[in-house]
Amino acid sequence: SRVIPWREGQLRAAAAGFAARANPADREAHDTWCARESAWLDDYALFMALFNAHGMKPWWQWAAPLRQRDAEALATARTTHAGEIDYWRFVQWCWEQQCTALKRYANDKGVALIGDIPIYVADNSADVWSRPDLYELGADGLPTVIAGVPPDDLGPDGQRWGNPLYRWDRMAAEDFAWWTARVERVLAQADVVRIDHFRGFAGYWEIAANSATAR
């Protein structure tokens, strides 16, 4: 996920101001939230720091130790990019505060919020980089098969979305913990959740990654 350039300048100024002048209560709230959400937040913040450090190249083009999540390389990266990691944690914390405030306001007015998540994630994402074993990937980190929908009367070539497909056998072996955590996260920000497209749980269209269309 990327931030609009002019907005990012404002966010970085806010992060610098928070680091320099935040009161103890806000610092404690920030640190407590970061610790509670560390299961996803730590990988996300590190991913974004490395993504920027590599000139926004996708993770499969990074140096092999980082691409393959070598423990020593990751530990070094967390130290080298500590400031950038703190920035991305701050951005997510701000987002959480705004979501919580909006949901509270809406609920107080008798309004429920509907959340929305796509069934698939992007190939160049913290989700895939942090758990490549959960996706249909080749040795190079690229998808071997991708998501989309089959041809129909409206689209003779179908739709080639390009997202990597899940290794459902491996997700099942973990009692679908990845999905449980994902849905729980969204339900903390909304009252109900729509998954687009839910039908993909029951049946999905598998496209060879080297195919130009979904035909």
> Which band does the percent of strand residues land in?
5-15%
Strand order of the largest sheet: 3-2-5
What string, H for helix and E for strand, traces the elements in order?
HHHHHHEHEEHHEE
Structural class: mainly alpha
Uncertain spans: none
End-to-end CA span: 29 Å
Q: Quick one: biggest sheet?
A: 3 strands, antiparallel
Average the pLDDT over all residues and give the rounded result: 94
Give the strand tally: 5
Gist?
With 215 residues, the chain is mainly alpha-helical. Helices cover 51% and strands 11% of the residues.
Walkthrough of the structure:
The chain is mainly α. Helices cover 51% and strands 11% of the residues. It contains nine helices and five strands. It has helices spanning 5-21, 24-36, 38-53, 64-67, 71-80, 82-108, 126-130, 168-173, 177-187, and strands at residues 114-118, 145-149, 159-164, 192-196, 207-208. Helix 2 packs across helix 3 and helix 3 crosses helix 6. The longest helix has 27 residues, at 82-108. It is globular.
Keywords, separated by commas or semicolons:
11% strand; 215 residues; two-stranded parallel sheet; mainly alpha; globular; 5 strands
